[in-house]
Amino acid sequence: MTGCGTIMRYAAAAASLKRYTAMTQRTRWSTSDFDDMSWHDVHVHGFEIVRNEGDNGTAELILDIDYILEWLKNEGKFSFVVAQASLRFHEVFGLKLALDYLKPTAGMCAFSLAGIERERLVFPTGYASYKWKLPINWPAGEIEFQSPGFTQSLTGQLFTQSSQCLEPSQRAYAVAV
Predict the structure, then answer these.
(1) What is the pTM of this model?
(2) Alpha-carbon gap, residue 139 to 105, rounded angstroms
(3) 109, 120, 144, 159: which one has the fewest Cβ atoms less than 10 Å from its Cβ?
């Protein structure tokens, strides 16, 4: 187990990951980059719901994450290039969140995503959006909602390390106390 409580399944996880290049050369991504990105084993330290201006009933959903920019394999062992990031979904509607720390009697820690999935939605009015699904692999859970897109920005420095999760000393606090 890591300090964040995730059981590492490196071989299976690495085999299922998409190959993506030049991630460490960027600091910002958006919906158009989705197919080139992976959120497998990314840890979520916090989330915030920020109401949008106006009266359309949507909000911004902001996740404070440790984004894994690169998986490095050397002599059968993995290390990771990880940075704190802000993942912001825009105009979120129909949020459904399920997270169970009780069943596995888990201590409170960052939860880990299995990935992010999306399904394109087109409404009779012609408005297009996505249904997003974020399966959680530790502890059990899932986040679902509708949103037309996201932006993700690095908010911290890059660390190359054996853990997929940053230590508190490596992170800036993202949510006001």
Answers:
(1) 0.85
(2) 9
(3) 120
